[in-house]
Amino acid sequence: MAEFVTVDRPEAGIAVLRFARPPMNLIDLQVARELAAAAERIAADDEIAAVVVYGDERVFSAGDEVAELDRLTAEQARAMADDFQAALGCLARLPQPTVAAISGYALGAGLELALGADRRIVGDNVKLGLPQIGLGLIPLAGIRRLSLLIGPGAAKDLVYTGRFVDPTEAAALGLVDEVVAPDEVYAAALRWARRFVGGPARALAAAKRVFEAGPHGQDRARTEWAELFATEDRGIGTRSHLADGPGSAQFVGR
């Protein structure tokens, strides 16, 4: 049983991947591994159409567990780096559309985790940042993804300075996608997730894999596109479009 991570099903088709390590939801290796294990279970569940990732009403995550990092030797850090990096990137490997619902703070490893989501919705009072440089470290999992999201120049500024950004700047940079009142964060994330219940799950998963392929996306797109012609949803989608127009398909997820 996981100590800090739960998966809830508040309504049909939607999973809420929640981590709670009071008081600040700091992410250590155990939390990261529990998140990755929960993400693997969600990925294998065909009944889940979309995923909300959530800390709690006060804070998404205030970052790395510095006390754990302080105890590591270089040898120990090398031994855990692959595992920790992969765990922090677990949301990007989910086949379902995924939204991070961010309250309070998303800092350090918390923001790195959220960068793997397809969408980030924040309260209008949040602080975001990658302050690891102030520890004499760098982000383990977030640099490449941040650079692709907001461009290398802006990413270098955030990583090199370790400064925090507010919701207005985060939205202008493209770091977050939607800013709402603090008590609306979770509800707004659920609203976005509901859009994909009953949707073309195979095509959505294929699109995610193309985005994740990065510079090899063009090659991956050709493969994914062709393979979708073997799915039931492709036949349903094209035939319903021809018969009844766009938006009429009733997909089955196969």
UniProtKB/TrEMBL annotation:
<protein>
    <submittedName>
        <fullName>Enoyl-CoA hydratase-related protein</fullName>
    </submittedName>
</protein>
<dbReference type="InterPro" id="IPR029045">
    <property type="entry name" value="ClpP/crotonase-like_dom_sf"/>
</dbReference>
<dbReference type="GO" id="GO:0006635">
    <property type="term" value="P:fatty acid beta-oxidation"/>
</dbReference>
<dbReference type="GO" id="GO:0016829">
    <property type="term" value="F:lyase activity"/>
</dbReference>
<keyword id="KW-0456">Lyase</keyword>
<keyword id="KW-0443">Lipid metabolism</keyword>
<comment type="similarity">
    <text>Belongs to the enoyl-CoA hydratase/isomerase family.</text>
</comment>
<dbReference type="InterPro" id="IPR001753">
    <property type="entry name" value="Enoyl-CoA_hydra/iso"/>
</dbReference>
<dbReference type="Pfam" id="PF00378">
    <property type="entry name" value="ECH_1"/>
</dbReference>
